[in-house]
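assembly run, all chains below
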Amino acid sequence: MRPATKLALTAAAALPLAAGCREQRPNIIFFLIDDNGWTDSQVAYGDEVYPYNLRYDTPNMLRLSQKGVIMTSAYACPLSTPTRTALMSGMHAAHERITTYGALTKDTPTDAAGGTTGIINDNPDDPFARSDWNWNGIQPCEGIDHSVAVTPLPALLRDAGYQTIHVGKAHWAPGGTPGASPYNMGFNVNVAGSNAGYPRSHLGEDNYGNTKELWQGNAVMNLSEYYGSPTFLSDALTREAIKTLEDPVRTGRPFFLYMSHYATHTPIQPDARFYQKYRDRGMDDGQAKYASMCESCDASLGALMDWLEAKGVADNTVIILYADNGGHSIDARKGGVPHTQNAPLREGKGSCYEGGIREPLLVYVPGKTIGGMRINTPVGPEDFFPTILEMAGVESYSTKQKVDGQSFLKLIAEGSKFASSALKRGELPTQKDANRLVIPASISGMDPMRPIISHMPHQWRIEDQPDIDFMSSVRSGDWKLIYRMHNIMGMEFIRTGASKAYAAAPGEAVSCGVFELYNLADDISESHDLAASEPDKVAALAKMLGGRLREWDANMPVVRSTGRRVPWPDELL
Amino acid sequence: MRPATKLALTAAAALPLAAGCREQRPNIIFFLIDDNGWTDSQVAYGDEVYPYNLRYDTPNMLRLSQKGVIMTSAYACPLSTPTRTALMSGMHAAHERITTYGALTKDTPTDAAGGTTGIINDNPDDPFARSDWNWNGIQPCEGIDHSVAVTPLPALLRDAGYQTIHVGKAHWAPGGTPGASPYNMGFNVNVAGSNAGYPRSHLGEDNYGNTKELWQGNAVMNLSEYYGSPTFLSDALTREAIKTLEDPVRTGRPFFLYMSHYATHTPIQPDARFYQKYRDRGMDDGQAKYASMCESCDASLGALMDWLEAKGVADNTVIILYADNGGHSIDARKGGVPHTQNAPLREGKGSCYEGGIREPLLVYVPGKTIGGMRINTPVGPEDFFPTILEMAGVESYSTKQKVDGQSFLKLIAEGSKFASSALKRGELPTQKDANRLVIPASISGMDPMRPIISHMPHQWRIEDQPDIDFMSSVRSGDWKLIYRMHNIMGMEFIRTGASKAYAAAPGEAVSCGVFELYNLADDISESHDLAASEPDKVAALAKMLGGRLREWDANMPVVRSTGRRVPWPDELL
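ok done. output:
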């Protein structure tokens, strides 16, 4: 045996994976955008091109949508930490009992805390007391109070031989706990990931918050080379990501890049490369800043795609583009009219209405997906865990947690073939028709009626947000039930915004039912409540929602006056 | 050909190194301590055990000194950045024209700037104006003003297949430049390395400086999981380092770990695991804090050594322990009497006297070094570059810079055999005898008389430091020449400290000559100036020093009154 062969066998023996499949294993880029809505790009996920789709220049997202599939019914949680922890664990957020965003510091529930200040605010004026949720997030180990111990996705990928790289926002757990560090989650490399849930500044001129004046605990780390420069945060992170990819590409090791942008989260700041163009189109300052941030993410995607092509690895690299919750609709810094920024979807971040949870999702799997096909079977954040493991060829693994998600690899592979055939047969003359194509479970391995459950049993902020706080929802097929928990108290709300989804005029008192029912096929804006006319649908969906929440032992608020848990929805039937 | 074999050959082909030698390549841990003096451990590098060697409990440094060689004449630069950049480039600091510490922000010379505040202070009262040095440090690329473009050591190791890992302090270049980022220097992984030259706090309770009250631009990054905990910085960095080593050990990839502690730099703070013990021994608060920091580094070394043993890779892992400049001798926070903290060595950090430049150095090379042997051939920071590449089996490489250093791998391998033989023959009855053993160049490949040049043509701080500012020195064999540049102006200094190296009493005016000459074999404290009685030695050494500085085009101050460069030392003969 010649020395080179001997060595090669030694090297292969050191690899933990079954050797036979190693050379086929794809690289995987999970490209995550923060607070980015369903209509915040040129990719029209809906039945038509909506006005917001015309607002942003995202040529690289279009480019990816032509290479991969367009998932028209992708969902996230209403807020960031629940989605992000579900991505790492494969558990539903309600099963994790992590259902609102996490604080900078441990033992600090954020609900009705007025931000990440670490002040625990129990909001004693509210009829509901805080639920007992896991405010210390997910953890890679046991023994941390108010947390869930999990086997994180990157650890499984790393153990299977992947180079696992984290760039950007982490936000799975607060400071002072192991879960705050990407290294504890199974990443071999971490750039800029910490306990912070948003950046103090996106601007190099601000040192990304690393200045005495600005510092607030969420300054972005590891970027000192760009301090004082005009490098926008998305660009800096992209450059860092590409640096970290050089080595695995050179050495032939498959990589998993978790490219987690802080954009388009607040603060809303201008990427100077793009801002003026949007002003020239007539946008106000906030709108133009936000648009520049959307395009900064698009430019990042483009830079990565260009780099993969230049290195000759684009044909062996999966790209998944997703966002962690809906676009912000109640932050004045974004400009425009509050509550409308995800139109035609109702509301935005924080809400169980579609504007808070319906997300962009593009998936390119070389050799498996057919470019430009549209798939409407709904998927949620917990589904990525088994999907990515299947993409990586990791077939047998054990986890501390019970994984709730289901792989959608077959859905997109077989589903895109199914859609392509229908298209070729002329059965999908319009985008709307393509959006309506039902891919049978017999083809996709996934029930098109599978329920998508959203659970936000919290007050998000100090100020009441009637269409956001204390809500749950379930979608199955075209039907969606909203459970407005606060309304069990017979409460009325003053309408503060201008969403066309509201029946009442601004300033007018609005009384809503405990349940609302919408048919999303006809009413994507959730503006025509059919609960009164479809009591059987309400009952069926309430049972579906209540049953699943009970099964997960989901956290629920407590009615202060009685000391009792808020009822499961089907207890109200 | 069976699939496994096919794969293995594919994997081997992807490796950039000649395959035949891969399995022999050792792991390398470069363990760097900050501001740590020659006598700051139980390892007695000198002819005898000095009082300071009895002060600190460093069992793991002793343990390493019994596995590897004890380099009794290792030198660093008087300050941090010059040593650290020389380590990365293999250039002499005077050749790099990087001869004092770097600032947090670019284009900010620090000399006489009173710290890292970014205020450029030209100290107009001084007879000398600032020299034109490279205050923007080393850079991995051309085009940065006042910097040196280099091919950094880690880049060569990475390109040879090593997993290159940076943990701790970087400090090669200021913020706003590429050199600030370990990723640009060839590291695949970076934990906590940035533009910062010292930590805002070593305490987990202070979030390592990541609090609104403390924040000053040098908060330590990437450690949010320890915020609010009692984890001392050295311990946190060690834990992170071990995490980053798991993957290369598992996959069989050789690693280079640059374990660069922020300790024992100021701020002087207590590691609670060790502090009280030293108080109980009668030390003052500052002394006990400093002692606890020394022991925190020792504990880190021990944890790494234990881990290597537990993983079964200790016998294939080089360990190099070194420090970047002498112990601080003018910082009241260290307690004790100023100017004495490196006794018997004169002065400390910043100075060209031995206290500023003579350093701990232990080197364990499995299969090559004989444990406990003492080697007195001097080495400097630029020598590590070729030494580490030779250890890694990187035989042919090209660099942007001209490397000044010389590999000392043969010196320690053959030298330790030579010393061991002499010991066995009974020729080295005492530690002093072992320290005097000259290893001939014919054995070691290295001239025992090779000159060690130190160059500190700056005012370190706003306040004059007579035994520190504006000095150069050269050592060859036992002889050492000091060039006190300020003294060409016929200046007198008031003695401020209590170093026994001074002839005069505290508060008394001291007039020193331009040259001082010491015989280190007889006078390790540099207290008996022989310049007047040995003019030929002075001339020979001044020519050696001047010649080398000219060859490197070293930076020199300018005499304000004449506008002319301060003379090279041999111009004054």
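Chain A touches chain B through 59 residues (CB under 8 Å).

The two ends of chain A are 76 Å apart (CA to CA).

not gonna interpret more than that til we talk
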